[in-house]
Design goal:
Ferritin-like, 7 helices, DUF4142 domain-containing protein, DUF4142, signal
């Protein structure tokens, strides 16, 4: 009796903490922390406000990129394990390999720049993961390729923008260096999606 009560209590605690997690978007939480850091780091001068604006753009780009990178790896692992088409499997494996490396670089850069990154997927990315992995068989592969096409179109734009607009030269260089990889992923998914969409 006592053991089942403890188990029930543990389950309730998990549900409460899960509910709490759902209401706090990890990307927004990380951005709030970075805003506080930027506020305390810049003096209340015109120059300080210009720097703060640049830091704000940079930290928002980094936090979103971190969540996106985690999505690529997490979803890639799940799809690689369950894909039925060779194209979806191959693409998912490529995403895990490339984005694991990219995520490590992003984390090292964020640590160097004192930028807090989310440690879990943001709400938008959690929804994408759920939508894909809830599907089965060819339907999952097709949903995955659809999301990867959309995701990499957005990534190419965001990283290209950051390679021009980022205030910090190292963040700008990181974004510029990552664009060719993202364009390669976009080309791959554009071609492979046609075959996956035709699969029965």
């Amino acid at each position: 009796m006592k053991r089942s009560f403890i188990a029930l209590l543990s389950a309730a605690t998990l549900l409460i903490s899960a509910a709490g997690c759902n209401s706090n978007d990890s990307v927004k939480e990380a951005q709030k922390v970075n805003e506080v850091k930027a506020d305390s780091a810049t003096a209340n001068t015109d120059m300080g406000k210009i720097e703060e604006k640049g830091m704000d753009y940079d930290s928002k780009f980094m936090t979103k990129a971190a969540s996106g990178g985690m999505l690529e790896v997490e979803m890639g692992k799940q799809v690689a394990a369950r894909a039925v088409t060779p194209e979806a499997k191959k693409y998912a494996q490529q995403m895990v390999a490339d984005h694991t490396k990219g995520n490590a670089e992003l984390m090292a850069l964020a640590a160097k720049k004192n930028i807090t990154l989310p440690t879990t997927l943001g709400d938008d990315h959690q929804k994408v993961l759920k939508d894909v992995v809830e599907e089965k068989g060819v339907k999952m592969d097709q949903e995955y390729m659809k999301e990867m096409l959309k995701d990499h179109e957005e990534d190419v734009k965001e990283y290209t923008d950051a390679s021009i607009k980022a205030a910090d030269p190292d963040i700008k260089a990181f974004a510029a260096k990552t664009v060719p990889m993202l364009k390669m992923h976009l080309d791959m998914v554009t071609k492979m999606k046609l075959t996956v969409d035709a699969a029965k």
